[in-house]
Amino acid sequence: MLKFQINPLRQRQFIGIILGIVLGTILLFTLSSESNEEYLSLGTMNTGHEDFSCNTCHSDAEGNLWQQVQSNIQYGMGLRENSVEFGTIDVETKKCLACHERDNDRHPTHRFLEPKFRKAVEKINTANCNTCHSEHHGKRVTLKKADYCMHCHEDLTVKNDPLDTSHAELIKNEAWVTCLQCHDFHGNHEYKVPHKMKDTIPLSTLKTYFNGGKDPFSSQKKFTALSEKEWIAKYLN
Amino acid sequence: MKKFTYILATLSTTFLISCGGVPEKSKDTKKEKLEFSVAEVLEMVSKENDVTRTLYTKAIVGAGKKQGMKFDEDWQKEDVEAGPLPALFLRGIANDIRKSDVPLGLYLGSDFPINKANKFEGKQGELFKKIKEDRIPQHFYDEDQKVYTAMFADVAGAPACVSCHNKHEQTTKDDWKLGDVMGATTWQYPTDSLSYDATIAVLKAYRNGTKAIYKDYLDEIAAFKSSKKPEIGDKWPSAGGLYLPSPEVFLDSVRELASYETMTVLLK
């Protein structure tokens, strides 16, 4: 047994440190195992992403952890120009688009990078998938209110309006939540838009869909997102 | 003992920061010679765009309509058998560029757009007024996004531009004439100057975008159920038949028409 000459209390400190190191090592190895990924997850994966492994979205950052620590210390001391990512790379819109990019997207994210959308983007950042589809919530759409069309379409006019309650009236009444009852934001569904308000999709049904329920627009879609297998085949093989 | 601890800590820190780390990417790119200003590159690619758009509007949409072919906003819907309107052709190119690693943005707008969401506002609105007067490209730095931005006149270069916009059910102006500035393209790029390789990458991204959207159109035609399918190959642009070029033939025609202007910039 080691001798603790300064103060016998140091012995307890020593045991504590050793215990901490041992427990930390066990935890590190246990949690980095693929079979235990669910314990690291921030929450249930969103609809359609249930079977994803962490690495599908969270790619490893360049270098090993030790190199990343070194690089960031160098950066902190002004010895290099750029810092580096630590652990994994941040999941950004481009990553989502690797599977979800579609030529028929009515509102592609890059569209909102045009200067004229600056004010709208300040209110709702539609240039970023995460604004409406925040991951780890076990849903499809995580935005609380579906009235975002107002930020760009408030001066919409429809000539020969086919709807029984005119678009002008809906806008005047600020009934912005009704837009999605006919028009899905990304426009990928094969869906015939009704001409009577009573035939539109009820808001409650839409909410169920946003929370991961059945698709009320149509099961027919022009483009489907890549599965994890297809993504691996396209980008990693 | 204290002195020893300090020396040990200093040596450990020096060791920690001086050995290894992740290599810096920017060091390699800095070696490249920056040959072109962003304004030069955007003007070059916008001229390619003018040629591409005019060729598509005149020789595909205009000529196709005379043969009974259809072009529609909802061209990608299952029950619509049609091709992309020129504005959507451009949107398709812009979409494809964004899929690449080239950070080039491309948008189309107007003061009288068919879809009000495409109406210019703010800085773009002010500059478009100038463009309408003198047709001179306008360049500015977008402080919010930290990107160099350029706007170029989009001129009604084919009868189909005028007739379709004037007759469109949702049009906001029905007296367009051939040669009018109907709108403007807006281009964005994040750096003020580009190397030769980066310039070629911009051009390639644009051309690949053209090829991709044109190929999408041909894929739609292949799925037509009730409409007559044109013959795709090298008979286009012969009159008297329903012909369309293959993507390679279409791009070759663009290259032929744009090469003088493009090469003049590249070989300056």
Oligomer kind: heterodimer
Number of helical runs of chain B? 8
The SSE order of chain B reads HHEHEEHEHEEHEEHEEH
Describe the sheet with the most strands of chain A: none
Q: From the alpha-carbon coordinates, what is the Rg of chain A to the nearest angstrom? A: 25 Å
Q: Please state roughly what percent of the residues of chain B sit in beta strands, choosing from under 5%, 5-15%, 15-25%, 25-35%, 35-45% or over 45%.
A: 15-25%
Helix content of chain A: 25-40%
Report the count of strand segments of chain A: 0
Domain count of chain A: 3
Number of helices of chain A: 10
Helix content of chain B: 40-55%
Structural class of chain A: mainly alpha
Distance between the terminal alpha carbons of chain B, to the nearest Å?
69 Å
Beta content of chain A comes to under 5%
Largest interface: A-B, 41 and 43 residues
Q: Choose one word for the global shape of chain B.
A: elongated
When the domains of chain B are counted, the total is 1
The SS-based structural class of chain B is alpha/beta
Biggest sheet: strand arrangement of chain B = 4-7-6-5
Query: Sheet bearing the most strands of chain B, described?
Result: 4 strands, antiparallel
Brief summary of the model shown:
The complex is a heterodimer of chains A (237) and B (268). Chain A is 35% helix and 0% strand.
